[in-house]
């Protein structure tokens, strides 16, 4: 364990990018996710490109469809250790 080094965060991910990454990991197109959620494809595109805010209600709907916790979408760069130190 003495050679163990904690992984360092290498990339900041925006909310829109987190939505896109999780959607793509689940092999869903924007059209497929739109059909599942009822959120228009154009709105999903705008969210993924950070043109509009995700919002709490949309985060809940997307999280259900993507089978993840809404916080994964809303707070992609959250570092709890940094919050504790503050």
Question: Helices and strands in order, then pairings?
Answer:
Blueprint: H1 15-25, H2 30-37, H3 41-48, H4 56-66, H5 70-74, H6 80-85
Description:
By secondary structure, this protein is mainly alpha-helical. The radius of gyration is 15 Å and the shape is elongated. The protein has a single domain, classed as 434 Repressor (Amino-terminal Domain) (Orthogonal Bundle).
Q: Determine the structural class based on helices, strands and strand pairing.
A: mainly alpha
Tertiary shape: elongated
CATH topology: 434 Repressor (Amino-terminal Domain)
CATH hierarchy, class: Mainly Alpha
Taking pLDDT < 50 over at least 5 consecutive residues as the criterion, the unreliable ranges are none
Question: How much of the sequence is in beta strands?
Answer: under 5%
Q: Please report the distance between the alpha carbons of the first and last residues.
A: 28 Å
Q: What attributes does this structure have?
A:
86 residues, mainly alpha, 434 Repressor (Amino-terminal Domain)
Short description:
The protein is mainly α and 86 residues long. It has helices at residues 15-25, 30-37, 41-48, 56-66, 70-74, 80-85.
